[in-house]
Amino acid sequence: MQTKEGPSLALCMIVRDEADGLEACIDSVRELVDEVVIVDTGSTDGTWDLVQTLAHRHEQIEWEEHFSLARNHALDLVTSDYVLILDGDEQLVEGHTQIRAALSQRGFLGGEVRIRNQLPGGEVGEFWACRLFINRPDIRWRGRIHEQVLPDLKTAIQADPNSTFCRIDATIQHDGYLPEIFDRKAKAERNVRLLSRAVDDLPDDAPLAERVYLEYKLSAALGAGPVGQNHLLRAAHRVLMAPLDELRECAVAAEVLVSGSQLWRAGGAVQQALEAAERAEVLAPGHPMPQLVLGHAHLAAGAIADAGKAAQRAGECDGPGFHYNRSEFERALAVLKATVHDREGDQAEALKVMVGLTESQPDCKLAALVQLQFAARLGEPAEAVKMGIAYMKRHGTTGQVLEACAAAAERAGQPRKAAKWRGLAARQAD
């Protein structure tokens, strides 16, 4: 095994059915690490055969539905001074030199690197995670799923005032959330199962941050149905009621409140939606999403001027914080601004905002639909009818589209078309 200059570094992995990407993953750090350590948790696609040829130390174990147990088993096989953690669907795409430099720092215990998630629709999400740390028996993973090593690292840092922990300008690219990969590996079902068990495992005195994090992740894994919404609102309520100082350790607090505000507003709980958005604004100052949901909450409360101010701030903000879908944000912000203009009596400006949205997102059906709805009610009627016909030719018909077209036809003095489209809308509803 070749030894690199400075402290030794091991690539430490747990894998299962990663034959497609494993070699590329290891190749991305081959010149950086001194040893490759892999624990296989029951692959059936040929991964185990690859592991035995690619890893310096390897073992196959029975999967106990507990990520920390498997990761700690892999740590027990490491002989190097430090460990770098990658999953089989990840690659280190930049920052190799920076990682080596970090290892050479005096008292270096660990560091965070950038995780870049490739998401559906070409979206990219980034966050920071601890993937590089010293190999010591007192530093181990915790948690059944969404496991963390930071609690033990924080204890070690507090015990040694000369230790260092830092962010490293290095990027790990993760492809596992792309639909063709996520669905093939049945990760959704696995995540729901493990997160449910993790929540049930929590003791009554579990830290707020841990409980909120798991409940929020479980709500996301369950999706938008009633069960998932119940877990989300439970997490949001905990964050809303907790002292602000206690929330500094809860990394997802602002994100939970933003999601909770949207759900409370949709359910008619406008005051809770406002309170959640205002607290999210405190926890994530400069981030656009708290301003956006605050604007929608003010709008629901009838505070049009306040909604307009929040919309303005949302458009100007670009501060750090949790990932959000930029295209969806732009659509929601445009709807907010247009509705504010409409309520203020400036229908021309409302329609102008929606025209601008469809120009910036020409392939977005939702943007085109919302513009059509505004045009049917506020724009020149005959032009709105033409817009509706063009929309149906390009995107097809739905009840919402047909109702908008019928409204435009009525305003344009075309009662037969209006009746025809309204009848089609009624049949689609049936």
Provide a concise account of the structure shown.
By secondary structure, the protein is an alpha/beta fold. It has 20 helices and 8 strands.
CATH topology assignment of the largest domain: Spore Coat Polysaccharide Biosynthesis Protein SpsA, Chain A
What's the shape? elongated
Q: Helix coverage percent of residues? A: 55-70%
Total beta-strand segments = 8
Which consecutive residue ranges, at least 5 long each, have pLDDT under 50?
A: none
Distance between the termini: 69 Å
Tell me what the structure shows.
The protein is of the alpha/beta class and 430 residues long. It has 3 domains: 9-182, Spore Coat Polysaccharide Biosynthesis Protein SpsA, Chain A (Alpha-Beta Complex), CATH 3.90.550.10; 202-324, Serine Threonine Protein Phosphatase 5, Tetratricopeptide repeat; 364-429, Alpha Horseshoe (Serine Threonine Protein Phosphatase 5, Tetratricopeptide repeat), CATH 1.25.40. It is 56% helix and 14% strand. It has 20 helices and 8 strands. The chain has helices at 22-27, 47-54, 67-75, 96-103, 150-159, 179-184, 187-201, 208-222, 226-241, 244-247, 253-266, 270-283, 288-300, 304-316, 326-343, 347-360, 365-378, 381-395, 399-411, 415-429, and strands at residues 9-15, 35-40, 57-60, 82-85, 90-94, 108-118, 124-134, 164-174. It has an 8-stranded mixed beta sheet, sandwiched between helices. α1 links the parallel β1 and β2 (35-40). The longest helix has 18 residues, at 326-343. The chain is elongated and about 80 Å long. The protein starts with 8 loop residues before the first strand and ends with a helix.
